[in-house]
Amino acid sequence: MIAMSTRHILLGLLATGPSHGYDLKRRHDERFPQARPLAYGQVYTTLQRLVRDGLAEIDGTDSDGGPERTMYRSTDDGTRELAEWAGEIAPPAPFVTNEIFAKVVASILSGGDPEAYLHAQRAAHMARMRELTTLKTAPGADLATVLSADYALNHLDADLRWMTTTAARLITLTAEVDAA
């Protein structure tokens, strides 16, 4: 299985034609507005590795009235790797690592207040949901922004439902944790 990585994202962006690192970084940040922006160093290091691995190659330079920039393009091997990666089904995680649940249990173990923690965490989730809703409903919001916000909102909503269920079961959970 090939994991998602910056290399695959850059190969995807190079699929539209030759480009330089600055443009790839800008297009990444536009296409994936809710993702962490790429650092220029990460883009250029990844491009060097793609060239080293035969998945991209230098396609000349372009000054476009400014400093000289190296242009990169995907190779046939890069196109094949991108197609393989894009066609793989992303498996559901076999184990769910839930930091919120871990903190609830740690709070119980340490004599803390798991109910207060869940209340505060719920407030943080609700605040983030309001931010995302504002972002996706802003005039001129593009579809990538809307879809990214919808994805995050659905995950936050699932967390909120889980927190509600867990809060309703805190007495039983506390008894089980204390008994263990």
What does this structure look like?
This protein has helices spanning 6-14, 21-31, 40-52, 76-87, 99-109, 114-136, 143-168, 170-179, and strands at 19-20, 56-62, 69-74. With 180 residues, it is mainly alpha-helical. Helix 2 packs across helix 3. The longest helix has 26 residues, at 143-168. The protein is elongated, with a radius of gyration of 22 Å.
Give a topology summary:
Elements: H1 6-14, E1 19-20, H2 21-31, H3 40-52, E2 56-62, E3 69-74, H4 76-87, H5 99-109, H6 114-136, H7 143-168, H8 170-179
Antiparallel strand pairs: 1-3, 2-3
Helix pairs in contact: 2-3, 5-6, 6-7
Strand content: 5-15%
Q: Oligomeric status of the shown chains?
A: single chain
Mean pLDDT: 88
- Rough outline: elongated
Radius of gyration: 22 Å
Structural class: mainly alpha
The secondary-structure element order is HEHHEEHHHHH
Number of strands: 3
Characterize the largest beta sheet: strand count, sense, and whether it forms a barrel.
Answer: 3 strands, antiparallel
Low-confidence stretches: none
What is the CA–CA distance across the termini?
38 Å
Number of helices: 8
Strand order of the largest sheet: 1-3-2
- What is the percent of helical residues? 55-70%
